[in-house]
Amino acid sequence: MAVRKMEKPNEGIKCVVNTCEYYMNGDHCAAEKISVEPRNAKGSEETDCATFEPKDRTF
């Protein structure tokens, strides 16, 4: 899923995954939209943010 990275955080989404490309300081998400999967999850422990993209860590 192609997601645009915004310059300002999406204030309605809290994210603490600082290894994600969309992570912003203050535990915010800069993804224009997110997708949470799978469809038939029975609890929060069974869900994942399908929008996650690892940060490019090459130096």
Automatic annotation (TrEMBL):
InterPro entries: DUF1540 (IPR011437)
Residues annotated as domain DUF1540: 13-52
Region named Disordered: 40-59
Recorded superkingdom: Bacteria
Protein name in the entry: DUF1540 domain-containing protein
